[in-house]
Write a structure and sequence with these properties.
2 copies of one chain form a homodimer.
Chain A: H1 3-18, H2 20-29, H3 38-57, H4 60-83
Helix pairs in contact in A: 1-4, 2-4, 3-4
Chain lengths: 84, 84
């Protein structure tokens, strides 16, 4: 594995993991009042585009990280709509 | 500008803008109780690595988007620590 790919996988793991604590916190507290709805909305659409960009560049770290993060942000949207 | 670069800039604009509403909301409410601290922490470190990755790939959309988003997440960390 090249240095570039390694950095990509470490970067992707961290930004992917970054979206998990908020989701866990949301499920635990069932309270999302301080969380801005626009954040997961814009990130979901933006990450769908980064995913296309990663596919065009044939960069697997970008493809995997953006797929996972996009799914996390979609869960956050649902939490925000359900828990408010 | 190629299709790839255009998609990259649109993707980068959306994910960058995605971090702004939370920061505005934080400044307005001065209340960050429902926001998980781990999110901006992990995203800041991860985006620093995506920035290096973008520099290695010489992909300007990745360089600009990750620089801006990293700065936004650093502000969110400070807000979370100050407002709690």
């Amino acid at each position: 594995m090249t240095t570039l790919t390694t950095i990509g996988y470490v970067a992707g793991s961290m930004t992917s993991l970054g979206f998990v604590p908020q989701i866990i916190k949301g499920f635990e507290t069932k309270h999302m009042k301080d969380v801005a709805l626009w954040q997961p909305l814009l990130l979901t659409v933006g990450m769908a585009l980064w995913l296309i960009y990663g596919i065009m560049l044939k960069e697997m770290p970008m493809i995997l990280a953006n797929s996972f993060s996009m799914a996390c942000n979609m869960i956050a949207i649902i939490q925000k709509l359900v828990y408010k």
